[in-house]
Structures are given as C-alpha cells and as structure tokens.
Amino acid sequence: TSITRSLTNFLRLDESDYQQFDVHEGLESTIILLDHELRDRITVHKHYGDIPDIYGYPARLNQVFMNLLTNANIYPDTGEITIRTEADDQWLSLTVASTGSGIPPDLLEHLFEPGFVTTGTRVRMRSGLYTS
User: Fold this and answer.
1) How would DSSP label each residue in 5-18?
2) How far apart are CA 17 and CA 101, in angstroms?
3) Among 8, 15, 71, 118, which residue's CB has the most CB atoms within a 10 Å radius?
4) Residue 130 C-beta-side C-alpha neighbours within 13 Å
5) What does the pLDDT look like over 64-78, one tens digit per residue?
6) Virtual CA dihedral for 114, 59, 31, 116, nearest 10 degrees?
7) Where does residue 62 fall: left (phi above 0), alpha (psi -120 to 50 degrees), or beta otherwise?
8) Which of 87, 81, 84 is nearest to 100 (CA)?
9) Whole-number Å distance between alpha carbons of 49 and 92
C-alpha cells in the first residue's frame, strides 16, 4: 500500500500539471520508491526545514528528486545521503549530499546535455519513466 501510494504521488497522475506542491511529500515518495536500492546499505538523513508549498510541476520535480537521489546512491557500497531543505522570504533551497566519490570534474560540464550517459558510473540520464 505504501509503495502504491508513493508511486501515485510520485507520478501525480490524477492531478493537473502546474499546481501547489509539497516538496517534502515529493521527497518522501521518492525515498520510499528507492527503498529497495537503499535498504541495508544507505542511511538517509533528512533535515527538513519549515518550508512553504511551492507552485510548479510536481511530476517533473519528483523526477528531479529521483535523479538526484539515484545519483547520490553510493552503489554498491554503503554510506550516507543527507537531504536538507530550508527557505527564506524569497528562496527555497534543497541540498542533496552523499558520502560517495562524487562526479568526476571532467564530466560536470556535460551533466545537463540531453541523453548524457557514462560507462561505469552512476551518472546518466534515465530513460522511460524518469524523463520528461
């Protein structure tokens, strides 16, 4: 039931595109969907601040959360992922950090190229469900 509810929330199939969105709810749904990859290997630390709902495209933002957390996953090793949210009068900030080795500096400039893939690392653009 939890996975089904999280998947429904993640995809936001029953709702319109642009709307008010609870970032923490989206993050929680994503974490539940990734539980099978994280369980027994990765500790997720959540430092959620008092943030307002935002307006945006929830399904697309959830895809961003999925990509961030998938790339932060220290596969196949163990480690930690830390998620922090905070807001001021003008900005909302979401930080995802992990104890993994990170992205090699020579690949950083290519991260936002459509279809970017590397061999032997977790850095890639997903196909299917996770692309817009």
Assistant:
1) HHHHHHHTTTS-SS
2) 36
3) 71
4) 18
5) 899 889 888 777 788
6) 0
7) alpha
8) 81
9) 10
DSSP SS3 for 118: coil
Q: Is 55 buried (19+), middle (13-18) or exposed (0-12) by CB count in 10 A?
A: exposed
Distance CA 85, CA 117 (A): 28
Cα(83)–Cα(116) distance, integer angstroms: 24
Give the span between the Cα atoms of 97 and 106, in whole angstroms: 19
Q: What does pTM read for this prediction?
A: 0.74
> Which pLDDT tens digit goes with each residue over 36-56?
888 889 999 999 999 999 999
User: Which of 102-117 are b and which e, b meaning 16 or more Cβ less than 10 Å from the residue's Cβ?
Assistant: eeeeeeeeeeeeeeee
- Cβ-in-10-Å burial (0-12, 13-18, 19+) of 42 comes to buried
DSSP string, 36-83: HHHTTTEEEEEEE-----EEE-HHHHHHHHHHHHHHH--TTS-EEEEE
CA atoms within 13 A on the CB side of 115: 0
